[in-house]
Amino acid sequence: MTIYQIAFFTHKQIIDLYWEIYGGQIRERISNASSDENIATSNQKYIDKYGELTEESIKKNISKINYNETSFNSLYYGGLGHNDLIMFAKTVFDRYPAIRKKIVNKYSFIFIDEYQDTSGYVLNLFYDAVRNTKVQLYLLGDRMQQIYKNYDGSFEEELMMLNDSISLDTNHRSVKAVIDILNNIYNNPVYKQNVSKENEGKVPDYLPEVIITSELNGAVERKQKEYKDILVLYLLNNDKFKEIGASALYRAFSRMDKYSFPKKYHSNDVLSDYTQENPDPLMRFIFSFDSIMTFYQNKNFGSMITQCKRYKEFYSSNTYSIIKHDDKKRLSTIYEELSKVYFDDNSLVTIEQLLKDLLANDVITEAFIQGIIDDGEYQEALNVEVVEVKRLADYLKEPRISTQHGVKGESHTTVLFVAADSTSTPIVHMYNFFRVWSQVDFSLNEIEDFYYKYAKFVVDTVNKLGMSTRDLTADSHNKNEANKLILKEASEKILNSFKNNRIFELLCKEYYEEYLNKPNVGNAKKCFKDSTVYGVLIAYKLFYVGCSRARKNLTVIIDERKINDFKESLVEKIKKIGFVVK
After folding, report:
1. CB 432 within 8 A of CB 503
2. What is the mean pLDDT of residues 232-246?
3. What is the rounded (10 degree) CA torsion for 53, 57, 59, 62?
4. Is 566 helix (H, G, I), strand (E, B) or coil?
5. By the number of CB atoms within 10 A of the CB, which of 14, 70, 280, 463 ranks highest?
6. Helices and strands in the chain: count of H runs, count of E runs
7. Which residue in 489, 477, 559 sits closest to 522, CA to CA?
């Protein structure tokens, strides 16, 4: 926030609004009815600093609402994390339009990058703020790369009203053979990509290919031997991190509520971001420490000090305030001992043990460690061995393995896409996508439009039932005539609404007809499932995104056993869009 903006967040009305929203959480934390040890420690720290911990003392000490610059809230201090700050700002704007107007008028242009991953309420916040003003709002992104459900379709009408005449239609990554494939998959001339001047005339080592086989592992291994730098794209993160040798680290982060579906960030995001922008404080520190240890190994002491200064949120000032020769000597002794642990491939030292050692040697701050402990979700991660951290860091410096939904910014000379389904997050029905795609020509706009309409039917029906169809039982269905009537009428309505839609006919129609012919609980559970369509939509996007990562050579591997019923039509479709089939 600028000084101008901070002034607004010091007003009594804003602080009162903060208490209106977060007062209940603060009171619960003060009382600590569950006797949580981490909360107790945090409460004691507040008492040590201010002499008492009461609602009145906290109100007295909060003079402004501020950005915490982390994913955490510091509710006793008026500090809000990334997501809460945006939600709080929206509430402020809605409650006090004059503040919204004054802040917005400070800007001429607002750019939202990767808008497809931004929630509808945030897009609406900015859209409403600039409407009827001279401020220009630009949304930059690619709908095809929207994988997770951060966006719910609630901004569609506003999107249709925006000027879309400005577009970036030059692909600077790939050769023409790959770009032709991408254009045919996208199937929309509005979004046609052109090859860049620097890539004109360049040809791949082999034409884009699809290998149909029942021996997937063998096909992958043969390609890896032939192309040493090949990027293998698996669907599931656990496959990726298992190959890296960091499966325990991935498992620990994937179990954290903060990175669960449908949160903004997921475990793969924070375990794949080696930069200072990583939203997770522990991983941001771990990767910064890895770079410091690498600098030490290479005797690049100046870069070590610079890195500690850059990440001063973690590191004690003693690590970058080198005044005397003894200071340098002391640090050299500490890092020499640390390197024996960090660079030992057989070390059993855990992350927690490493942090305690760093704290004892005054390398990192107590405030950082306390923040991790207060969070309450890191214990499993702290028990992971440091050697997994090292393997992950080494991989990120030179990746050879990735997932199809974690490669938005990556590219590689040679890419191998392994087609697979997933029932975990994100739900992916790759082979159902192939089945529908082999019989219907559709674009992203067409299948997304169908999905949002279909999803609305699902939501409306679930709201009327008061439960998801998967939760229906013999009592709540077979013995409940009201629920059966809701499902009957909704099934008839959805069949009528999509009677000319080929995607609906191939994916959903039979389930609703079966239910109307035989309205039992088993058939009801197959109907009004968002995932039936969503899994195919996400598969379509992942297939495109995975192929788009190839700069020069592209291979797709498909399991022959899963396409027996539509192999002929799929082969025809694959050839039509430009692949060679093997």
Report:
1. no
2. 77
3. -90
4. coil
5. 280
6. 28, 12
7. 477
Position 234 confidence tier, pLDDT thresholds 50, 70, 90: confident
- Strand pairing partners for 213? 559
The DSSP-derived string for 150-205 is T--STTHHHHHHS-------EESSS-HHHHHHHHHHHT-GGG--EE-GGGTT---S
Strand-pair partners of 74: 79
> Which pair of structure tokens corresponds to residue 496?
């009528």
Q: 182 CB contacts (<8 Å, ≥6 apart)? A: 171, 174, 193, 544, 547, 548
pLDDT one-digit tens code per residue, 140-198: 877 777 766 666 667 777 877 777 777 778 999 999 999 999 999 999 998 899 999 99
Angle between helix 281-297 and helix 366-375 axes, rounded to 10 deg: 140
Residue 187 identity (one-letter amino acid) = N
Residues 6+ apart with CB under 8 A from 50: 57, 61
Question: Over the range 53-83, which residues count as b (16 or more CB within 10 Å of their CB) and which as e?
Answer: beeebbeeebebbbbbebbbbebbebbbbbb
Q: If we measure between CA atoms, which residue out of 434, 547, 570 comes closest to residue 193?
A: 547
Contact 236, 542 (CB under 8 A): no
pLDDT in tens, 197-226: 999 999 999 999 999 999 988 998 899 899
Residue 68 to residue 87: CA distance in whole angstroms: 14
Under 8 Å between Cβ of 378 and 282 = yes
Q: What is the spatial distance between Cα 285 and Cα 432, in angstroms, rounded to a whole number?
A: 41
